[in-house]
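Archive entry: two folds, one per protein. Generate the first.
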Amino acid sequence: MIETLDDRQSGSRKRRDRQRTILGLTLFGCTAAVLLFIIWDGKRYQTQVNRAIDDQTVYLAELKREESKRRRAEEQAEKDKYLVFQYLKECRDADDFPELTGSLVFSQHRGDRGLALWVPEGLHELRVTAKISTRRKQEPDTNVRNGSSTISSLSSEDSNLNQSTPNANEAGGTTAWSQPETESLEWNVPLQGSSGYLLELESKSSEEPLRWTITSNAAAFKARTEQVTTDAFKPSSWSYSDSNKAFGRVQSLRPNQIQGTAVSEQQSEGVEVFNLSLASSRQETKVTVELRARIVTLP
């Protein structure tokens, strides 16, 4: 059989049609596969996002619960501090201290009355220092004369005038005081844990020196009294430093805040809980005493 031209052209068209059909089906299959993959990946990503949102929602809910607990704990701590303040304020002697628990150190600055202190379990030490500054009265120099009376060229009239006019120092003048003489004292007082302490100042009359006494409700602690001044001292005024807390308020400290450091760094160790300046003025002397107390938790 002889194949005509028309038959060849018809077969060529059929082959091209089949190729187009196969190409179209291939493109459709690839497009469908890509779309299905995009849909599947989107669903997977959405699932991951939803899971992450759920996790964050749970985490935020936990944070809110923890924040609520923290606020309630802070409010309770403030109430507890207020109760401790009320207790310490009413303590007239060491036996009045309540039985406290916990790990905080409580201190109350009482001005010229002294210091109330409660320490938890552990090794603690109270370090008391005193800086005494004394100025003594100096008598005016009655030999001082007006400088013009020593000039030989003055006329006799001027000389008579100078001799008849008394010098300010001769007439009494103003009181002169010497440069301050300073003395420093230091005492270390070991403290027993879970106990209250009262540091009180004693200077009841103008004939007695200044002393401080520390007592405790701890059975094994012996009351201790130390003399600060050798001469009689009766405070005529006092002031306190408020660098750490408000006067009369309770200061609460954690033991790691007052951890002792190396001996070479003793100036910076511990926390200051008492700072008081007392002044006494007598006819012949002026005395200023600066009392400080620091509490240190020993390792």
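Generate the second and append.
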Amino acid sequence: MLPRPMNEAVIAEFDTIVEVATALRPIMVAAHIVLRNLNELQKFAREHQKASSITQLKFDVGWAIQFKIDACRHMLNILSSFRAFLDHCDSYLCENYGKNSKERVRFKTETSRQYDTSNAYRFLSKLRNYAQHSSLPISHVNVSVKLNHPEKSFATELQLRLDRDTLLSWDRWGAITEEVSKMDKSIEILPIFEEMDKSVNELAATIFSERADELLRCQDYLERVSAILKAPEGAILVVWVGDHKSDGTPPGHTELFPVDELRLINEAMGSVLQV
């Protein structure tokens, strides 16, 4: 695609309109780090929950330890990135609207609603503190073994479960202590983590919605510019800013059209609207 010259007024207009996508980028990235960590845990669990057949009942202790290490690593990644996501949201609101702003109050109200209505949100918020300050979330590895007939082989399956009584040995569950005590003795953790997906999108959408009109304007602007440039599908639109150092060499400073940011932001907002 041939470059098109843009004067200072056009560049200023571009910067003003796309500023919203740039400003919200850290929130979008933080949210998708959590979602990506969730996807990786789900993939890890699926790989190990598939029953595999063996002809001899023989286990490698190192293999079980590696499973525990990887399981804890995935879970800690989710819990830590979710806490970071919440902190980044709060920092963004304080810096852009103020500590006592209605925007920050609205977000705090949404986090309170999540805590009150989502069992997973409550439990995982406390589990993060447990994993950070007390012990690893998985205290032991559960392996189920079943003898297959007539193949005379064993089907093995690894499971991601938490031991309720081990968790309760920690005395800082606070208001949800009774709730945890009523959970199954062996807690299946994957379904609980999977509920976090909804909370992340709803919390991110709470922030994105504060600038919904600007996001719509930005999207309309980028669509019109793309149509004018007749950009082929999948093309990366770039604005080069500054003077050419030499003929045929673009300036060193570039600004990308925030197409991907808008797509991911719209997905988060759309997933909430469809609920």
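Annotation attached to the second fold: The first strand starts at residue 52 and ends at 54. The first helix runs from residue 8 to 49.
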